[in-house]
Amino acid sequence: MSVRSLGRLLMRSRSLGTATLSGFKSPIALEYIYPASSLNPVRMPSIPQNQGSTFSGYIPFDKIELSYTRSSGPGGQNVNKTNTKVDVRFILEKADWIPEDVKNNMKIKYHNQLSKEGYFVVTSDRTRSQHLNVADALEKLREFIRAAEPEKVAELSPETLERIRRRREKVARERLQVKRGRSHVKSDRGASSF
Fold first, then answer.
1. Does the pTM of the predicted model rise above 0.85?
2. At 81, which CATH number?
């Protein structure tokens, strides 16, 4: 095997994700563990779309405003020098990444989080790290949005409805039977006729 063909084989194996010259691929190679994923770290992930009235969890950074201020709480003298408190804000009316019915529910449910200008504000100063506070504020925002999603009411099949009806009838029959039995016991305690 020439040096040139060996170099081509090595380049081809690197582009395929294997660094071996023999062509052997381990059963725990990334291609087998994550078969549907792209192993290209440069590729940007696709943006998930909202399905109907459910929130996908994706918050676009270009549509929110992040501001940092000095935090209270633990940190010693360092809190006087670093801006670790995070405010995440966006105009709720213009948030096209949140479904309309969820936005309406958020206006009603979290009216105290809205400013006069219509900004929805979430703050976090839980940790001494700015990055962790950003992650915490975004997670709080996701929780607010998911809590404002409308409840899903499952359609029950006719068989299930019939089963529920029979159970209710059975419980009512048993309750009335116990009630009649107690009535007989109490009526027998009355005056005896000799």
1. no
2. 3.30.160.20
